[in-house]
Design brief:
Blueprint (H helix, E strand, L loop, with lengths): L3 E5 L4 H12 L4 H14 L20 E7 L5 E7 L5 H8 L7 E3 H10 L10 H10 L15 E6 L5 E7 L20 E4 L3 E7 L1 H6 L2 H10 L4 H20 L5 E7 L4 E5 L3 E7 L2 E11 L2 E6 L10
Parallel strand pairs: 3-4
Antiparallel strand pairs: 1-5, 1-11, 2-3, 2-6, 5-6, 7-8, 8-9, 9-10, 11-12, 12-13
Helix pairs in contact: 1-2, 2-3, 7-8
The protein binds glycine.
Amino acid sequence: MKWAVISTWKMSYEGNLQASDILKNQGNAEEAVLRGIGIVEDDPSFHSVGYSGLPDIEGHVRMDAGFMHGRTLSFGAVGALEGFRSPVQVAHKLAERPTNNFLVGEGAAEYARKHGFEERDNLTDDSYQRYLEESGKLKPLSAYKGHDTVGFVALDRNGDLVSATSTSGLFLKDKGRLGDSPVIGCGFYADNEAGAAAATGLGEDIAKGVLCYQVCTLMKNGYSAQSAASQVVSDLTRSLTKRREHCDSISLICMDKEGNIGVGTNIPFAFVCADDTHPAQLYLAEPAEGDTRITLISATEISGID
Ligand code: GLY
């Protein structure tokens, strides 16, 4: 059977390569997405995820993550988790339980500590410096350009689909604010009988369309992954723009149960994908009159892409 993996933003390139290796070598989708996201969580050059993530208004890096397995529909999520190396690993562990799958704040930290997850202060000199520079300025908050949430969706050779996300959330968010990334159906979803998806962009706008559940429902009802992704993003963008003259950044990756991918976006959005026919490659998706234009980024253009 085919394997495939798709992930958000250029920052996921190295993680996608490693996730591909796992899938190619008979590993499962669960391991693949955790490895892929773990690479991004550990890299201090990306300021919207994990180590060196950007802080909230109080100067604390409080992180969100979600995980869902498409065979069992089990999911786990953490919100506003502070002081741990890999929020997505904690979300994955929470998916093993029948209840209490979504923990936030100190409850999530207590659970992570009790289960021996590695602790780490994710605030670096660099992220604190950015906090000092920006925290006094009065301006509307919007999705962090070019990075935001890392999301991975993968299909393994057993036909299992998995989706997961990790982010430090909106820069300078209020204490306790949660975005879409840890909320099942909004930031992530996976169902072996339908497809799987992950979102990135402004959580408050993504949540208004419950986008990841929506796109999986369309795929279940026979839409191709690409038409489903284009449709949910352009419908929500149109609907919000009509009602309040503005829709913030929204991008979505998805995959059907055969491993075909779809991408919807209302901004220029880079993503990475690989499958059993080609290695990890970087693409640029752009909105194009209700549809999505997708172009392969050549090695010479890569430095100009977020
Ligand atoms: N999409 C990430 C957030 O809004 O927190």
